[in-house]
Amino acid sequence: MRVLAKDMVRAAGEKSGEELEVSGWVHRIRDMGGITFVVLRDRSGIMQLVFDSKPLDADGNELTLESVITAKGNASLNIKAPGGAELKVSSVRVLSRAEPDLPYQVNGNVSQFSLETILDNRMLSLRNPKIRAIFKIQATIIDAFSAYLRSRDFTEIKTSKLVGSGTEGGTELFEVEYFDRKVYLAQSPQLYKQALVAAGFERVFEVCPVYRAEKHDTPRHLNEYVSMDVEMGFIESEKDLIELEKALLSHIFEEVAKRNSAELEMWNAAVPSPEAVAKAPTIPYEETLKIVNEEAAKGKNPGSRIFDINPEAERLVCEWALREKGIDLVFVNEFPRRHRPFYTYPLNKGDGGAAATTMSFDALFRGLEITSGSRRQHDYKTLAETLPKFGLKAEDMAGYLSVFKYGCPPHGGFAIGCERLTQKILGLANVKEASLFPRDRKRVEP
Amino acid sequence: MRVLAKDMVRAAGEKSGEELEVSGWVHRIRDMGGITFVVLRDRSGIMQLVFDSKPLDADGNELTLESVITAKGNASLNIKAPGGAELKVSSVRVLSRAEPDLPYQVNGNVSQFSLETILDNRMLSLRNPKIRAIFKIQATIIDAFSAYLRSRDFTEIKTSKLVGSGTEGGTELFEVEYFDRKVYLAQSPQLYKQALVAAGFERVFEVCPVYRAEKHDTPRHLNEYVSMDVEMGFIESEKDLIELEKALLSHIFEEVAKRNSAELEMWNAAVPSPEAVAKAPTIPYEETLKIVNEEAAKGKNPGSRIFDINPEAERLVCEWALREKGIDLVFVNEFPRRHRPFYTYPLNKGDGGAAATTMSFDALFRGLEITSGSRRQHDYKTLAETLPKFGLKAEDMAGYLSVFKYGCPPHGGFAIGCERLTQKILGLANVKEASLFPRDRKRVEP
Questions:
Q1: Structurally, what CATH architecture does the domain formed by B123-434 represent?
Q2: Does A439 contact B159 at a Cβ distance shorter than 8 Å?
Q3: A202 to chain B: which residues are within 8 Å by CB?
Q4: Is B215 helix (H, G, I), strand (E, B) or coil?
Q5: Fewer CB atoms inside 10 Å of the end CB: C or N, chain B?
Q6: What tens digit of pLDDT does each residue of A205-245 get?
Q7: Would you say B445 is a known binding-site residue?
Q8: In the CATH hierarchy, which top-level class contains the domain A5-96?
């Protein structure tokens, strides 16, 4: 019966004297002359093996780093061993011998490698426990997101990623050769979420890949990312959505704190408490601009002006909120019409003019936009009239419009960027670090 | 405070005399002269509203089917009303008026419509409670699959769907224009699952879209489907995987039975009990062929021979198992080498000849293959030698091979087709019925 690293201390106590079996990857080898210490890594952590002679495989080869082995022996407590216990090995079997020309130092310090090196050696860099920790936390985020929404009567949906046209206006789409025609990779499940709310599910969510054919390469962009999408019927305004997202983020943070304390510690990271999340302010767009300009005036370029919620503004307003409210989570609402897609609901009925604002919001966390959301226009006639103003044709959007033509409740939704939330929880410099196999303009391997 | 249809009986009892509010879609209207009965549909079910005059909106228009309304009134028990209670309406507000030219009869009997009609009117056909029920069950399947695997220490992963080449040999791939190069939509997360087991996660799962550019149109194929993928390290053979899948299916069936009894009832469907699943036989490929030929000999064409586990064989062996074992779930293992991908592990070490068999299996449920799985070859040198025999080049597969070059445990996995499992639980004639927005050669809308 195999014992995992995390259970070694307990096993050393409970099964003292019994032969135990462990399996894993050779993480580190220290040859001390007569005796050899091997740090073995499994899915749960690391443990120390002690060999009283040089460990060899059945063919007489020396152990190599990253080889996969099964060892048997007696466990004992050792306060100096990683994890607090060690196994005195009586027999070892090499299940898979690693070639000795390891091109990436798996047991090295992550911070000593460039992002390029980490991603070029992705199959090996993921073996590092600190890097693996990123994705243990990401798994918790996805589970906590889904579980919370299920508890609120949301239905999980799986919608097509192959669409006839874009929902955001047709730019930045990847083209797919689909038999004898062209289709596109979905930029978001927006239309489908709305369609399913209107179909009577009322409350839906989807965790799915989305695609943006943006050419720029920044620390905050991925060409393929995991979107955690929510849509909800019978709401009054974007404020209902902000309330939902606060509860959702609180739950996610609580679950990460509960399940991933070891992973957070590796990154010296912490998540906000539910009390702190409850204090996150909601600030209208114009007021946010005022705050960030006041903040900017205190900074290095006091004469510079910020005209938009750009990355600099996101950073400044989060700093302000941390100082003034005790949490670097901010909901900016009431974005001007010109900044939002055609389906965004106006704040004041009938107000479609240039100065018009909308029932929309972004969530900014630790200086980065992690969410965009809004109440949507659900009135068929208004939508049909709005399309031409955004350069869209009603005939191209007939499928979309039919959702609203035959009865659609007031509704809205938002999406949380899964990699961005992971990034900000851990304080990663680049969002690509939070994607198992990131795609950018140059990278489609591995 | 809104009351849902499912809570109306309780509300009629507990809040007798109080004014209640309900919201939903106008499912049916019966004008009885002086009094009008409206069946209102919400996410939880249907309920009866009683108007003592013709219901009109604020502009004096008559109610139309599928309009979304909010009504207030007093609830009372009525054994003859759908759900057992009804609301005597004192006021009504139309939130969204449906145009009266409804092109699809939402409240009709699903079996009266062809699949084409249902899919051509997808935005409306999904409003039918019986069709919606399919996807309520699908949501349970996905949740139960994920929850069970999490309880067994599997980590949820999200891997790229854009890949440089196919993992199954390069045929049947959809091409994507990716900036200045071409990539493909992933046929399965196979390589990534294996890479992450090797990276130390040991046990991973993913629920994700996969793509097959197959031109044929059959009741069992989709060009885009949801794959529920599992991969597990430190296994001995495919039998460990069959054991895992049995436990997994048992859990899924139990959760569907528990959470979706109303939906199962709409389809007159039932799921197998855990006791029945435990009895599902595992039958080697050759023996399965023998059984199906014996079964075929008793049938309409007693002279015909079956040389392969084709759809006819899948049906026959499931019928046999239901009769002989009490469950129409069969695991066929030990497939011949020639039927399986290059990465499949041989049953007898070194046996790569034409007669060789593999540590592989399919799961057949109610006459349909729902799973394919195997132990994988994890030995670097053997894999490198195997590739040319399958017409593959080691240099094209360098990324894949590097996973095994530096230590990879024995491992294997499988995938369950989410739509096929949904289809077979409910007894749907075509797998497309179990996809919210199915894609086939002709259909990419909506």
A1: 2-Layer Sandwich (3.30)
A2: no
A3: 42-43
A4: coil
A5: N
A6: 999 999 999 988 899 999 999 999 999 999 999 999 999 99
A7: no
A8: mainly beta
